Amino acid sequence: MERQCQLAEVSRAGFYRYLQQTAPQQADLLLRARLQELAVANHRLRGYRMLTALLRREGHVVNHKRVLRLMREDNLLSLRRMKYVFTTDSRHNLPIYPNLARRVCLTAINQLWVADITFIRLRSEFIYLAVVLDAYSRRVIGWELGRNLQAELAIRALQMALGERDWKAEELIHHSDRGVQYASSEYTQMLEQREIQISMSRRGNPYDNARAERFMRTLKEEEVYGTDYHDLEDARSRIGEFLEQVYNRQRLHSALRYLTPEEFEQASEAMGSDGADGSGGKPNAGLPPLPQALEIPPGFPHSPQLGDCL
Fold it and tell me: Which of 147, 110, 117 has the alpha carbon at shortest distance from 131?
């Protein structure tokens, strides 16, 4: 190196000073390019913390402050989100059940399912989507699209969930709002016959079903608002792909320690999160082990374990 500096007629100190000044700029250029690709691929709906997690998965050594700075400089900050409108018809004389989910501390899947219904606007009509989520992993386990708000819509979503999952009698709670679909005799009988406990939100309090409401917001922002569906079948195909492939298997969730619902369930099962190891269903320390392709680069501290109590 000394001989090369002599031939170039520069000092060694000057050469190393040049490297220190240019290397960060080159690294920023490469990072900016990948950051722009990720932001565009996600329709500019991902915040800087989520993009930081995606970059770390790819092996980039970067923190959220640097990502935020680059996003601000390149005008890549997430777009303003539309206000969500809550719609529930609870004006009926059907039986109302108490809220059993308020103080549940989740330790495994199939302890609490949450359900909700939302509307989707097509070119010439409205259609409706009913979903059932596992509250522990946020995974969509049942869904159905239809042209009306009859109880059959919610029943078909529940039937899909029942076919997808195994649960222990009297240990599973089904939580929903007070909508007429969920209070109908057909729906409640399906739950009672399978010894599933029924829980409903308090009147006019959407926060009691916050996880289902948050899912609906994510669905609208990341799939529905940017898509022009031709008809019901087109919506069924494209929304089904989003739910099954993108949301359950690709989308990272900050509440799941930046894992997908599918990965989180697999990691929880590997850690014995069903409580069989006597740990109460929680890992002894730190994060669950990630798949080899998803390992965090050395030097990054593990985030603390978050509780799952509602």
Answer: 117
- The identity of residue 88, as a single letter, is T
pLDDT digits (tens, 9 = 90+) for 116-141: 999 988 888 889 999 999 999 999 99
Of residues 140 and 37, the one with the higher pLDDT is 140
| Cα dihedral 7/9/15/21 (nearest 10) | -130
Class in CATH terms, 84-310: alpha beta
**Which residue in the block uniquely carries the two structure tokens 């170039």?**
8
- Token pair for 120: 């989707």
Sequence letter at residue 8: A
Residue 252 CA to residue 231 CA, distance in Å, equals 29
Q: Is 205 left (phi over 0), alpha (psi -120 to 50) or beta?
A: beta
Give the C-alpha separation, 303 to 301, whole Å. Answer: 6
Task: Please state, in angstroms and rounded to a whole number, the distance separating the CA atoms of residues 104 and 102.
Answer: 6
CA 187, CA 63: separation in Å to the nearest integer? 48
**Radius of gyration from C-alpha coordinates of the chain:** 24
159-205, pLDDT tens digit by residue? 999 999 998 888 999 999 988 899 999 999 999 999 999 999 887 77
